[in-house]
Amino acid sequence: MSVKYDERYATHPADAKHYDTARLRDEYLVEKLMEEGTINLSYSQYDRFLVGGVVPTKEALVLEAIDPLKADYFLERRELGVVNVGGKGSVSVDGVVYELAYKEALYVGKGNKEIIFSSDDAKAPAHFYLNSAPAHEVFPNVKVGRKDAIVVELGEAVNSNRRTLNKLIVSDTIKTNQLQMGMTELHPGSVWNTMPAHTHSRRMEAYFYIEVPKGQAVCHFMGDPKETRHIWMGNEEAVFSPTWSIHSAAGTSNYTFIWGMAGENLNYGDMDVCQPDEMR
């Protein structure tokens, strides 16, 4: 089994202002997450947050601790969120099997030792997107199907930002230590997400873009609200957003993205809004 990982270090906002395109991408963009027969992980020093991609084909893939965790097993001191963005698959947690269809989620609590990912069909494998954060309490494992999500309609077509927000792993639906995850689907004709943009110094965030049509792209905006930067992204790519950075995007078509957060505040509405005409 192949497991690949990298580490991302925290950066000062004053330093980030001097990064060129290549450096911005190296520091914040996570490419090639979904690779058949492989577990790909990226470990960030922002709130010790971790993003990953798992694509099992003929053989199941086991999630084991990587060296930066200095743990006997992956969830020894962590919690885990999983969203399937591919074919049907399952996640076995200490022998209990949870079947996940497209866009279904699973929360796995601290202390579970054996996490095994499988696909129902190797020719149409599951694509499991992972978020993980440190945990101090043990909470139950919970599957969150599409019908279990809290659904909120946001934006307007006239502003090109009409979108459906699905709260999956959030404090309003299940108990977590600090991990929060959800999925936002843009309607046809809309391209802007998270607008007005915002920051929240109480927690960091990561975005994972999916359903980006072939030949199209998403321009992710980040940085200080008064001196923004951008990163062009493709399908099934993730980006880390530091606490001091905005996180918003516009696409050349509509798309979907999964957001994940960790930090000291579980209140989804805790944000410092930056109006469009205030940003630079």
TrEMBL record:
Q: Which GO terms describe its molecular function?
A: 4-deoxy-L-threo-5-hexosulose-uronate ketol-isomerase activity; zinc ion binding
Enzymatic class = isomerase
Which residues does the annotation say bind Zn(2+)? H198, H200, E205, H247
Q: InterPro entries in the record, alphabetically? A: KduI, KduI/IolB_isomerase, KduI_N, RmlC-like_jellyroll, RmlC_Cupin_sf
Q: Which UniProt keywords apply?
A: Isomerase, Metal-binding, Zinc
Question: Which prosthetic group or cofactor does it need?
Answer: Zn(2+)
A Pfam entry, by short name: KduI
How many and how are cofactors bound here? Binds 1 zinc ion per subunit.
By its UniProt entry, which SUPFAM superfamilies does this protein fall under? RmlC-like cupins
Query: What EC designation does it have?
Result: 5.3.1.17
**Family label:** Belongs to the KduI family.
Name the job this protein performs: Catalyzes the isomerization of 5-dehydro-4-deoxy-D-glucuronate to 3-deoxy-D-glycero-2,5-hexodiulosonate.
What's the protein here called? 4-deoxy-L-threo-5-hexosulose-uronate ketol-isomerase
Q: Which organism is it from?
A: Labilibaculum filiforme
